[in-house]
Amino acid sequence: MSAGREGKVYAELFRLNGRTALVTGGSRGIGFACAEALGEAGARIAISARSLDEGEKAVGQLRQKGIEAIYLPADISNEAEAQQVVKEAAAELGGLDILVNNAGIARHCDSLKLKPETWDEVINTNLTGLFWCCRAAIETMATAGRGSIVNIGSISGYISNLPQNQVAYNASKAGVHMLTKSLAGEFARSNIRINAVAPGYIETAMTQGGLGDPEWSKIWLGMTPLGRAGKSSEVAAAVLFLVSDAASYITGSVLTIDGGYTIH
To answer: What is the dihedral of CA 119, 123, 124, 126, to 10 degrees?
Structure first.
């Protein structure tokens, strides 16, 4: 069998045995798929979500698969809760090796009708709260001398979507991409790798309405060369790669997972 870095069999580079991970927004969609992928690779998992019922249900599903998992309630749009849930995860799991920042919301609205509270809701959840989670995780990881963070960005950080108007969401995801690069450069010497993924249209609760709309889905899928929406598992597989030793020389990157949407 072929051997990779440090004599490991290549397949072993993707294993996360003995590592711990927190996935924010981990009760459904992309977040749950990430928790599942990391757990199947051997990591002990903490998921955070605002909904107690959804969080406990998700943990139950993970445990049925033999994954060691706990649920921690948190609303990361609140600075104190964002930082506290990271500290709680580290305490409950016995350290924190991996953070996947998935929690996020989208609001469609014409810019001239956008209310200040809606802008704040999106930015505070998707960008500001993500930063506080990163900072708390980095403090823990720096002490341990290693760590990996993956932030969930979006193709909306690159392009202005059609036909929906969503200026706050687009701005927040562009911010996630640059925040990722900035933190990656700042903490590379601490052996902390920080990357992001930029999904296109993925089959989740967030996109269900748009994919079910004949006009929207015609545009979305018509502009996607592969001709279909992606699956949460396809994003989770990329996240698994980025947090694993297989990506040990990758930091500050934003990996696009969009069926070719942004090649135009």
So the answer is: 140
